[in-house]
Amino acid sequence: MNRRAAGETVKSFLAAVRPQFVVFIGVIGVFGVVYLLAELPLELFLYSLELALFLFAIYLMVQYIRYANRYRVIKELGASTAGRLADMPESMDPADQVYIEKMTSLLQELRETENLHAERQADQLDYFTLWLHQIKTPISAISLLNQNSQTKEAKQISQELVRLEDYTHMALNYIKLEEPESDMEFAEVNLDDIIKKAVKKYSILFIYKGLKLDYQPLEMQVLSDGKWLQNLLEQLLSNSLKYTPEGTISIYRDPSKEQTLVIEDTGIGIRAEELPKIFNKGYSGLNGRLHEKSTGLGLFLSRKICQRLGHQLDIKSEAGKGTCVSIDLSRAQLDVFD
C-alpha cells in the first residue's frame, strides 16, 4: 500500500471511529467528575486514565487492521472483481455481512445484464452487417438496369445510387473500425491507381454538376492499406463533391511535402468556428443541416481511418472560398522480415 493510499485509509478510519472517540472522551469526563466528587486520590484517576487509554489504543489498532482490509477490498472492487468479496474478513459485523451479501447479489446481476446486453448487441451487429452486405446486390442490379437508359431521370437515379452506395460503405466502414481486430494489410501501393478508382466512381457526379477535375498523375508509392486508403479518398472526394456546387476540385501533391496528398475544392467552405468540431462524431455543421446532406460521420470516419493507417489528416477551410484537405502519407521506416 503506497503512502497516499495509506493516508486515505487512516483519514477514512478516523472519520469512521469518530463516535467512539466522542464516547471515550465522555466516559473519561464522567469518571473524572466521579473521582472529583468522591475526593479520590489523583494518582488513582491518572492510573485509570492510562489503563483506559492503553486498552482503547489496542482496540483502535485491531479495528484499524480489520477496517484497512475491508477498505482495500471495497476500494478495488469492480464488476469484474466481485470474487474479491470472499477476501473480506469473516469476523465482521452482521450488518456488514448483509451489505456484502447484497453487493455480491447486485454485482452478479450486473454481470448477467452486461453479458446479455453484449450478446444482444453482437446479434444486432451481425444482422446489420449482413443486411448491409445484402443490400449491395439490389443496388448493383438497379445500377446495371439503369445503364441502358439515357434519360434525365436515369442520370438522376445514377447519382442517387452513388450516394446510396456511399452511405452503405460508410456504415460498413464504421462497423469495421469499431472492431479492435479490424484488418489492415500494409504494402507499397500506387497512389495514382487509388485516385483513379475514386474519381471513376464519382464521375457521374462530376458530369452532372459540371465540375472540373484538376488532376495529373503523381507517380507516388506509399506504404499503406490500399483498401482503407481508397475508402478514405472516396470519403473526402465525396465531401468535396457534396459541398461544391460549381468550380474545380484539385488533387495534387503538396509542393513543400512530397508525401502529402492534397484535395482542394472551390466549394462553400466551412466557418472558422466550426473547424475545431468537424471531426466530432455526429457533427454536421451549419452547411450539413441547411442542405440536409450530412450524416456527421464522414470526417469522423476519415480521421479514424487515418489514425489506423498511421497517416495525418488536416483540413483548412474558409467560408465561401473552399476547403483544402491534406493527408500526410509518410510513415516511419518499417523493417520487413521474410
Verbal overview:
The chain crosses the membrane at residues 21-38, 44-62. The protein is an alpha+beta fold and 338 residues long. The protein folds into 2 domains: 3-110, no CATH class; 187-328, Heat Shock Protein 90, CATH 3.30.565. It has helices spanning 3-16, 18-37, 42-75, 94-147, 152-178, 191-201, 203-209, 226-242, 285-291, 298-309; strands at residues 187-190, 212-215, 221-224, 248-253, 260-265, 312-318, 322-328. Strands 2-4-5-7-6 form a 5-stranded mixed beta sheet, covered by helices on one side. Helix 6 (191-201) crosses helix 8 (226-242) and helix 8 (226-242) runs antiparallel to helix 10 (298-309). The longest helix is centred in the middle third of the chain and has 54 residues, at 94-147. The chain is elongated. It starts with a helix and ends in a 10-residue tail after the last strand.
Order of helices and strands: HHHHHEHHEEHEEHHEE
Total domains, how many? 2
Query: Residue share in helices?
Result: 55-70%
Rg over C-alpha atoms, rounded to the nearest angstrom: 35 Å
Specify the CATH homologous superfamily of the largest domain.
Answer: Histidine kinase-like ATPase, C-terminal domain
What kind of sheet is the major sheet? 5 strands, mixed
Overall average pLDDT:
81
CATH topology of the largest domain: Heat Shock Protein 90
Shape: elongated
